[in-house]
Structure formats: C-alpha cells, structure tokens
Amino acid sequence: MPKNYCFFYLFFIFSLLSFSQNQEKRKVYTTHKIENPPRIDGILNESLWNQAETAGDFVMVEPGDGDPIPLSHETNVKLLYDNEALYVAAILKEENPERVITQFTQRDNLDQAEFFLMDINTYDDGENQTRFIVTAAGTQADARMTGDNEDYSYNVVWESAVSQDENGWYVEMKIPYSALRFPEKDIQTWGIQFYREIKHLNEGYVWNYIDKSVGQISQYTGLLKGIRDIDPPVRLSLYPYISMASERYNGNDDFNFNAGMDLKYGINDSFTLDMTLVPDFGQTAYDEVELNLGPFEQVFGENRAFFTEGTELFNKGDLFYSRRVGSTPIGYNEAQRELLENEKIIDNPEKTDLINALKISGRTDRGLGVGFFNAITDKEEAIFRDTVTGNTRRRITEPVANYNILVLDQRFNKNSSISLVNTNVTRNGSFRDGNVTAFLFDIFNKQNSFNFKGQAKMSNVNLPGQNKTGFASMFSVERTKGNFRYEVGHEFANETYDINDMGISFINNYNNFSWGGSYRIFEPKGAYNNYQIRIYGQHLRRYRPDISVNTGMGGSFFAMTRKRFAFGGALEINSEFRDFFEPRAENTYVLYKPFGGGRFFVSSDYRKRFAYDVRVYYEDYYKSAQNSFNLDIEPRFRFNDKFSMVYDFEYEYENDRPSYVDQSRNMIIFGTRDQKSIENSISGSYNFNTRQGLNLSFRHFWSTAIFAEGEFSRLAEEGSLDPIEYSKEQNNPDANFNIWNLDLSYRWQFAPGSEAVLLYRNAIFNQDKLSQLGFEESLDNLFAQPARHNLSLRVVYYIDYNRVKNLFRS
C-alpha cells in the first residue's frame, strides 16, 4: 500500500521542525513554606494566610475574552506548602450572596452549583494536569486532564471546606503530595491555573489569560514557584472492601459474600501501580440494552471504575475497548449450535470472570508517558446433558486469557506528541490470539495554527492453522487558529484489518476521504454568547474492490444566547449507499437509495428550576418508501438544592427498511421491516448533604420489528433485490423486545476515600415474536415474566500508608 507511506514521510518532515508554545507572558505565583498547617474549615482566620502572596486580577474566559473581573466579584487565591501538602485559600467576593447557587450533589457531580477550580501540571508539559474543584455547597470533584479531555473517573483523596458570609464565599483546600505525581527535584516549577464559575451571571474567569482562538486551554497555565526541598511521600493506598448480595429470581434465592482489595502504589516519583485483587463488579450500573437486528454487536459504556480511572494513556489510538475484558466467551454461540441429539445445555456462562488486573502508568520529567495494563480472565465451560443417558460433557468456550497493553507517549514542546501502542490477547490452547501495534503522531506548528495527526496500525490475528495480518492508517490536517477553520482527512483499512480481540472496529476494507470548514466566535456578538457554522463532506470507498460506497455533504449550526438558551441543527444529503455489512456475507452488498436528513435541538437554561431538551431527527430515502424519525424530550426539575429529577422520553420509528432475514438455499433473503421503539427513563437524586444521598435510576425500553408479509426478496447482483415467495411461518423474523431496569441506592461517604453503598436492583426482561401487540399488552407480558430482585451492600475503606505510619509512630 505505497500511497499510505507518504504519511510517514510527512511526519518525518514535520518532526524535524522546531516547535514551541505560543502564548502571552505567563503569570508567576511564588509560594513559601510553613511549619504549622492551617485547619481546613473554610474559615480563613489564620494569620499565616495574611503572609501569603495573592493571585488576583482574574480575566474573563467565558463568554467574553480577557475582560477584567468586576470589583463586585473580585477573586483572590493564596497558596502555602509544607512537607506534606499544598494548601489553597480562595476568597470569592459576591455582592449578592443570596444569588450564589449552592446545589447539593455527590462527588464529581457539579450540576448547577457555582465552583472554584484549580489545575496543577507538575511537569509543566502543556497537556497533562490534575484538576481539583470545590462547589459553593462543598462538593468535591477531581479529574485527570489530557488536553481538553476531562476524566472524572480519576479519584484521589484530599480535603476541602467552604464557608459563606455577607461578602461572598470562601474555599480552603489541602492537596497532599500523595495525590500528585511530580519529579524528584530540589526545586519544583509547576504549571497552575485557577478558574471561578459564576453560574448565576453565566460567566467564568481565569487567573492566567486563555486565548480561546489558538491551541488548547491546557497550554495556558501560569507558573507556580517557590516549592523546594520536599520529598515525594510513599504513595501507597489500600482500598479493602466487603460486599454482600442477596438475589431472588424465579423462586430461587442466592446469597453471595465477597471480599477483596484495590491497591495504589507509587513505584517512584513518576509511576503508579493500580491493582484490583478479587474484583467485585456487582454494583456497576446496568447496560442500556436495545433490540439489535443489525450486523454489529451493541457497544456499551464502561461502568467498572478500575477500567475508567486513569486510562487516558491506554485510550491512545482507540485500540482499547475495556468491555472485551470479562465479555462473552468466544465459544458461547458455537456451544449453542452444537447440541447433539437428546442433549440440552445446563450451563453456558455469558461472561468470563476476571481473576485480577493491574495497570502501571506515569510520565517522566522529560515528557515520556508509559502505560502498561494486564488482566487475566478465568476459563469458562459449557455443560451439556444427555436427556436419555444422563451423561454430561463439557466444552471450553473461553480458556484462561491474558490481556496486555503497552503505551509509550512522548510529549514535546508542550503541544505535540508521538506514541507507540501495542495490545495483545493470548488465550491458552488452540484458540484465537490477537496482536495490534500502532504508531501515532499529533503535532502542532510553532504558532499553534495547524495540527497534523496520523496513525498507522498493524493487526495480527492468530487462528488455529492460520494467521491474518491487516493494516490501517489515518492522516488529517486541521487549521486550529482564528474564526475560520478547516480540515481535510483520509482513513484507510485493508480487508484483513481486525482489532476486535481487545479493541472494537465494526468495518474494514475502506478508503475514505473527508473535509470540513467552520466559522465560530470567541466572544459575545449581538444576542449570542457563541455560535458556530460548519460545512462538511465525505467520500467513502471500498478498498478492494475499488468502488464507491457513498458520497455525502452537509451543514450544521450551533448557538447559545446570552440567556443560556441553546439551539442548533444540521442538514445532510447523501448519494446511494452500498452496505457491505447488512448481507452478512463477504464481498456482497445491498444498495440503498439516495437519502437526506435533518436534525434540530433546543436546550433551555439549566440554572432555572425547570429546564428541558428537545431533539428531533428525520431521514428520508428518495425514490423509496423508506424513512425514519426520532423524537427525544427530556424535561428536568430541581425542586430545591437537595432534590432534582430528570425524565427522558424517546420515540423512534423506521419504516420500509430492506433488512436481512436469513440465508437459505444459497440465497441471502431480505424483508421489508418496520421498527418502532419507545423508551422511558427517570434519574433522580436526593442529597442530604455532600456525603450522603439517595439516587434513583429507572429505564423501560420497548421495541417491535415487523416484517411485511409478501415483501421478501433475495439479494441479487449489484445490490438489487428480486422478489421471492417466503413464508414467515417457517422462520418468523418479527421481534417484540421489552426490558425494565430499576436501581435505587443510598451512598454514604463516611470518611475520606471511604464509602458504603446500599443498592436495591429490580430487572425484568422478555423477548418474543408477538410484534403485533400494543404497548399495554406487551407490558402485561413483560410483568408476567419472573423479576430479578437484588439487594447488595458494599463497604470500601481507604487506608493511607503515611497516616498509618504516623499513627504507629505516635
């Protein structure tokens, strides 16, 4: 594939250039060391704060650009340090204290509360930083920042408190060094930024100016100086847990008791080991399962904290789909199909059990990020019983499997990086193994006005007696400065590219081109705080054979008024579409007619007690009866500062869609399908304070698919469909899908880093062929099914080695 080699040459040329960060002169704050730390109570009455330098003169970042903060909302920040921690005090003046929004929420949930934020970049590399947030109600939030991406699954233990009087509100924070990674140097120089969100004014202010029209916000930190002669502490934290669960289903009762532990250990000043021993994922949120009649598996979000926290390095190159670890055994479906005469399956596990997992990650003071991930899953077997003889046999559906990721990510010049990623899955015995290696680059020029991104990925799948090697690449150029911006891109994959042992990729064998342009504003204009107009297009091709798949273009618009009312939409037109995946056969496609569509949304001001979101989408296929429609209405109401609720209603239909039915007598059979879905969901929370709260999550999803009688066809040459006689009585493809999930939990953070969660879970599921039933009749059938009731308690306790060590010394 010689045409892809040019990407490497382009990278080589750009990598020889000299890059530098381009920003205004950075503010500098110099702190000093103290002997006796302040009490973290939100009341700044200790004399030591009077001796600290003041970081003031905040400037607007939203919605304006650089306007000084008014005296009525003057904001000042002070920092001190000792051998254990960094201490922060923030004075946030407010001429109308009663207008400060103090909504009670749980950790990492800001909702509509006003807040103070501090970013710390201990390596001052322009990208990787740790974010600490305290709301006016006292809620804590913390995140790992990679560029503009926030990872709120990252959690460390630190202290904070707030207070309020007639002049405004105040914050005190204690950030222990055990919560940070920093180089082992005598003199520390860190990047730092402060931000204040004044929600009731719809304004945000920063300490160090941010030019929103150039680069990323993480490149605009100020400098923190004065910290010296501190030793990084031993970063060892233990999270032992116990969990108990009682379940009743279909007249059977089950009780489980588990105990295990998560561990965090600072290997050195840069790298941290995270390990989970005897993991327990019994209280993870339910998956939003839907009726899936398409050719691809349904993708679910990750609900297990270990696989979401601190994974920014492992997500490089989009090669890690964490749900692969502990997923359905690779031989699950084969076991369902290989029943012998007089046999039945008495056990066929749908998930593999995770034995243990660990990850090591960090970044050196020279900007080299290193990440290593390993997980081991247990063997799973299907058990068959002969109903005549009573004999049983076993079949391994998934052997012991080892999952690995290695990432090397070199940052340079505070705005660019090159990365090498390898993923590997090895299964014991004669099973499928997978290995993927990727080379990535993400480079800005020295003015931060252009960005060059590229990827080259090589996959290798080892099957019994067969190896399959594939290749994929991506290259894009984007203008990243000013009001007018544009980009062009190219993506390629050959027909053997396959990353699905540890990643997820639905399609391969493509050669796609894309382009786009936009105009945006960075400070208010007229009635708008911001708006953006964008046009875009794409041309999709099959790599082998080289034929066109689709050509499309469109335009979109987004705007937000000064009163925080947002609206926008898009219009798109597309040529005919050759779908190579709906037929479920190689080198075969079905041809869909040209189509166009439009979407529109409105979103009201969330600061008000009542707010709403409405989204509408419609798609129509020209010269065809096929069309689809989607309506999503999501009202929300905040009863008071402790109680809020969101209701979401979604209705969707798809009419006269030619869809795969079956393969019979060397024919691929299609039918004309109507599909309708209704989803109702409710989420609500009542927070007694910032450490105790009740949370409700409910979802009911109903979907039917009806294939029209007498409208079946066989797939012919060039994607056309020829009518045939086909009886639904032989193989009825209709479906009626109904699922109900309810979670009610009480969460109590009884000590820093420690919590207890009591969870009640209720679930019902039904799927049949009765697609002609209406909503109420189908719901009656759902409630006739046995319900699964689960009550569980999980208690996690945080143990800091340094505190235990000091306790024993005293």
UniProtKB/TrEMBL annotation:
Domain Carbohydrate-binding: 40-186
Domain DUF5916 per the UniProt entry, residue ranges: 232-808
Record-given protein name: Carbohydrate binding family 9 domain-containing protein
One Pfam short name: CBM9_1
InterPro entries named in the record: Carb-bd_dom_fam9, DUF5916
Domain of life: Bacteria
